[in-house]
Amino acid sequence: MGKILIVDDDPVFLDLLGAFVSENYPLLELVTCSKPVSALSIIKEGGLDLLVLDLEMPDIDGAKLFNFAVETGMDPKRIVILSGRDSDYLHANFPLGTCLAVLNKFEVKQKAVLEMVFSSLNRKAEARQDVDAKSK
């Protein structure tokens, strides 16, 4: 299964995104966290296929969580940064190649990119499920 952690301090956005993933990508194991501090132990535990972080959060912002995840061994190409800021700001602070994607969470076209990422993980989980079924 593809394990995803989504960290966002906006409970409405977190609930909407969590419900969307659960309804449309049933093979993905979804963990949501509205408190960045609570996400630290989940990140440290490892085993995440994708980490989706809100950039602007109290206590620990997304940039600090990103750095923590990378320092604990997570591949930065498995991390997506979300923000309400414009794309110029985001790309200046997270240049191409820094992580999988940096997306404005309110732009429809950029939501499509996130959907492509979820879809890809779901297909990989489906393929793993098929391999497991055949090996039994």
Please provide a written account of the structure.
This protein is an alpha/beta fold and 136 residues long. It has a single domain (2-135), classed as 3-Layer(aba) Sandwich (Rossmann fold), CATH 3.40.50. 51% of the residues lie in helices and 19% in strands. It has helices at 11-24, 36-45, 62-71, 87-93, 108-135, and strands spanning 2-7, 28-33, 50-54, 79-83, 101-104. Strands 2-1-3-4-5 form a five-stranded parallel β-sheet, with helices on both faces. Strand 3 (50-54), helix 3 and strand 4 form a beta-alpha-beta unit. Helix 2 (36-45) packs parallel to helix 3. The longest helix is centred in the C-terminal third of the chain and has 28 residues, at 108-135. The protein is globular, with a radius of gyration of 15 Å. The protein starts with a strand and ends with a helix. The relative contact order is 0.16.
As a percent range, the share of helical residues equals 40-55%
- Mean pLDDT across the residues is 91
**Element string (H = helix, E = strand):** EHEHEHEHEH
So, CATH architecture? Answer: 3-Layer(aba) Sandwich
In a few lines, what is going on in this structure?
It holds the Pfam family Response_reg. By secondary structure, the protein is α/β, with parallel strands linked by helices.
